[in-house]
């Protein structure tokens, strides 16, 4: 963080069954470290698409094991 910046927030991307969910998390209160730093929040639709894509990749990997 730079001087004068607000505390970072995190995004939790969850999926179960046919349901996908995006939630915010206050990192400073949870003690979680940042792995990727963005200066602008992506749209909710873009985050849902990225979550969906990650799930598809994971399912294919499981099928190949």
Shape: elongated
Largest sheet: 2 strands, antiparallel
Tell me the number of structural domains: 1
Helix share, percent: 25-40%
Could you describe the 3D structure shown?
The chain is an alpha+beta fold and 65 residues long. It has one domain (9-63). Helices cover 37% and strands 25% of the residues. It has a two-stranded antiparallel ribbon with strand order 1-2. The radius of gyration is 15 Å and the shape is elongated. The protein starts with 8 loop residues before the first strand and ends with a helix.
Short description:
The chain is an alpha+beta fold. The chain has one domain. It is built from 2 helices and 2 strands.
Keywords:
65 residues, alpha+beta, two-stranded antiparallel ribbon, 2 helices, 2 strands, 25% strand, elongated
Write the layout of secondary structure elements.
Blueprint (H helix, E strand, L loop, with lengths): L8 E8 L2 E8 H4 L13 H20 L2
Antiparallel strand pairs: 1-2
């Amino acid at each position: 963080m730079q001087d004068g910046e607000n505390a970072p927030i995190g995004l939790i991307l969850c999926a179960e069954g046919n349901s996908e969910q995006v939630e915010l998390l206050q990192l400073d209160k949870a003690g979680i470290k940042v792995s990727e730093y963005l200066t602008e929040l992506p749209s909710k639709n873009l985050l849902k698409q990225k979550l969906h894509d990650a799930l598809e990749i994971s399912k294919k990997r499981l099928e190949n094991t």
